[in-house]
Each structure stands twice: as C-alpha cells, then as structure tokens.
Design a protein that fits this description.
CATH topology of the largest domain: Aspartate Aminotransferase, domain 1
Order of helices and strands: HHEEEEHHHHHHH
Shape: elongated
Strand content: 5-15%
Largest sheet: 4 strands, antiparallel
Structural class: alpha+beta
CATH class of the largest domain: Alpha Beta
C-alpha cells in the first residue's frame, strides 16, 4: 500500500472542524478507487496522482472543494448532473453535498482509466473577446496626428486594445487627459502601451 503523505495529514488537522470529515472521506474514496494512488501537494492543496494528476481537494473557512483534473470526461459522463462550479461539486459544507461513495469511487476509476490511456483533458472553449469601444477622446487626438494614427493602425488588435482600454477605463477626466497625453507621445514614437516591460524582457 502506498505511503500516505504526512503533509496531507497536517493539512487536514489544520483545517476547520467541519472540513475534516469531508477531507478524510474524500481521501479514502480516492484510495478505494485507486489503491496505487500517490499523494502530494500541488498549489499548496492535497492532490492525488496516478500516471498524471487525478484530482485534488481543498478546505477554506466555510467550505471545501474537490475536483477531477479531467472533470468533463469524468463527472459529466452520462449527463450534466452537476454544474461545473468550484471544483467538480461546488461548495462542500458536509458529506451530504457529495455523491454517494460508490459513485465517487466509480468516478475515480474512470479518471484512472483516462490517465492510463493517455487521454488529454478537453480544452475549454472561450468566447472571443469583444473589441472595446474607441474612446472619443483618443479618436479625436489620432485624427489630429498622422504619425500617431499610422502607428496605432499598424499595431496588432491586442496592442490597440491596450491603449483603448487604458484611456476608456480612466475614472476621472483629469486622469483620462493625462493618459491621453502620454498615449499620444508614445504612439508618436511607435511605442506599444507596455513598451517599458517589453524592453526589460528582451
């Protein structure tokens, strides 16, 4: 039987009283589903591995979480029964918030099988970010400076976005004017919004 990681014992003992039985139960479930599992800490939280990361758990002040690394292929298999919120089962405040031990063990075994087969977790699809609105002050300033306008229009969409968001998100008119003045100086020189950091990284 693989050794238990003493750091996880310490983690459980340091957790809130309500969390300890939840964490102990989840730990036993993982070992029941995968006797060869290896315990470790990742991101300072108890994690379980077998030919790759299987799952992990964590305790906070008022709730716990438990999640499978390949959630969409494990928990959602057979239907959308749980919403993908925090972890795989949302906020856990008692054992009643979890599926039955039998069902959890089945999920652990599914996760093990996926890892042994080398199946990769599916990539999440992100909706394309909508371009920000052009601040009227920036539009007017660019119309008065051919050099700055040409540089701005030659930038990639992400670099144009940086200037538009920086000026558009100013809280006060004074801040907006100050940022606009600085932006026009940099644009006239063909500099990106974060050119100082780009120079350091070179």
């Amino acid at each position: 039987m693989p050794a238990r990681d003493p750091r996880i014992d310490q983690y459980i003992e340091r957790s809130a009283q309500f969390a300890r039985p939840i964490l102990r139960h989840l730990r036993e479930v993982v070992h029941a589903g995968c006797p060869e599992v290896e315990e470790t800490l990742k991101w300072r939280m108890p994690s379980f591995e077998h030919e790759g990361l299987l799952c992990g758990m964590a305790a906070f002040k008022a709730h716990c979480t438990f999640g499978f690394w390949k959630h969409a292929l494990v928990v959602d298999k057979g239907g959308e029964r749980w919403q993908e919120a925090m972890g795989s089962f949302g906020r856990l405040t008692s054992l009643a918030d979890l599926p039955s031990k039998r069902e959890l063990v089945r999920m652990v075994r599914t996760a093990v099988e996926l890892n042994e087969l080398g199946v990769k977790p599916p990539r999440r699809k992100h909706s394309p970010k909508q371009p920000p609105a052009m601040p009227p002050e920036l539009k007017a300033a660019l119309s008065r400076s051919k050099r700055a306008r040409e540089h701005f229009e030659s930038f990639s969409p992400s670099h144009r976005r940086e200037y538009m968001e920086w000026i558009g998100e100013a809280k006060t008119e004074a801040t907006r004017e100050k940022r606009l003045e600085q932006a026009m100086e940099w644009l006239g020189q063909g500099k990106h919004r974060h050119w100082k950091y780009e120079k350091r990284a070179q």
